[in-house]
Design goal:
242 residues; alpha/beta; Rossmann fold; seven-stranded mixed β-sheet; 7 helices; 32% helix; globular
Length: 242
Amino acid sequence: MAAYLTDERWREIEDAARGSAARLLGGEPTFEAKRLPNRDWRTAWHDHFDLVRIPGARPIIIRPPHIPYEAKPSEVVIDLVPGLAFGTGQHQSTRLCLRLLADLIEGGERVLDVGTGSGILAVAAAKLGAESVLATDIDPLAVDAARQTVRQNRLSERVEVREGSIPSDEQFDVVVANLTADILQYLASDLSRALAPGGRMIASGLIAARQDEVTQTLTEAGLTLESVRGEDEWVALLLSRS
């Protein structure tokens, strides 16, 4: 485990930290303190976040603003500053959703992104050609992050970010829910109602070991499983509503 503290703060808590660690871990845990050179920590993430490429017929590039990139005609480029909200394109579940969105969006769709996090999937849907996108999240920090991502990509007219969950009075052509197995099961009925007849839903954020139980819950809610896409131990389900 690593923590970054000022010299003054470390001196204040060193004895307490060592005592707490000894009680929790037993014995005499080893602490190593190093003095780091002063720098602008607001931009330290530059060292660890590079271009992310999502291959496919319509490749998606996630670009941090400090890296210049000249896009090819077939590529979709998303500008993203990584922050506290989930979704940078580096996690398998996010990449699976992006690949499926690139396959599904043909142009003119109304899209719902549930649990939008950083807003990366909502922005991707709009840049792939969706007519309008509603992105929702119950976390105020995620809502702020998603709105920033939307503004960075100049999509405020087509992507709306709301604090909340699934609207009860609207239906969408495409629903993407990159959540967890438990939340997908909890929201199954609401997700099904939000999908217009003939619409398609991407459900991700679950490991392969829980694929069958989540699929069963979603099909019991009125959805039909069309296909499964996987990467490592993670899977994404593509479902439809007849």
